[in-house]
Amino acid sequence: MFPWFFIFAPQWHLPFSGSVAQRIDPQTDWFFDGIDATAGDSRIERQAFEVASYGRQLGLLTEVLVELAEQVPPQSETAVKSLKRLRAIQLEIEKIKTKDAASLVRDVEQALNRLQKQHPAEYERLGERMQLLRLGRPY
Fold first, then answer.
1. Domain count, the chain
2. What is the CB-side half-sphere exposure of residue 90 using CA atoms within 13 A?
3. To 10 degrees, the CA torsion angle through 117, 121, 124, 126?
4. Strands (E) located in the chain
5. How many helices (H) and strands (E) does the chain have?
6. Are residues 82 and 137 in the same domain?
7. Measured distance CA(83)–CA(62) in Å, rounded
8. Which residue in 101, 99, 98, 126 sits closest to 112, CA to CA?
9. Closest CA to 62 of 39, 35, 95, 93
10. Does residue 99 sit in the same domain as residue 136?
């Protein structure tokens, strides 16, 4: 009736009401957001990461550096301490990998035992497939 009155009508917004804008698309590039945009080309960083993860790249560098340091020991006290620390880090990472492998083996054994008890025919088929894989043949 009087359309100009809506201009003067107060708008009340109680908590959890009113205009709400929310971004709901998943953020899947969280790892690469840690790299400063000016540090390099993010497209190339992603492709390089697909070739070898940063951990694998650092592992290779550490292996080479430790071997070279064993051939030509560092001269300064700071470098000697750093090399000792690098070796300790390398050993700690190897322990983590070993522990993970043991845990994985335990999980696989438990799953195989469960498969054998609950689905013996599937267990036998899996055994046959594993034999073919060990011989280098596809199943």
1. 2
2. 16
3. -90
4. none
5. 4, 0
6. yes
7. 10
8. 126
9. 93
10. yes
Tell me the pLDDT tens digit for each residue of 35-90: 666 667 777 877 887 888 888 999 999 999 999 999 999 999 999 999 999 999 99
Which residues neighbour 60 within 8 Å (Cβ) at sequence distance 6 or greater? 52
Indicate yes or no: pTM above 0.85.
Answer: no
Q: Are residues 89 and 137 in the same domain?
A: yes
Per-residue pLDDT, 45: 79
Greatest C-alpha distance within the chain: 93
Would 21 be classed as within a structural domain? no
Question: Among 46, 72, 98, where does a domain finish?
Answer: 72
User: What pLDDT does 90 receive?
Assistant: 95
Task: Name the token pair of 87.
Answer: 């070796």
Eight-state DSSP code of residue 118: H
Of the residues 72, 96, 122, the one at which a domain ends: 72
- Range(s) of the domain holding residue 138: 77-139
Token pair belonging to 105: 């083996």
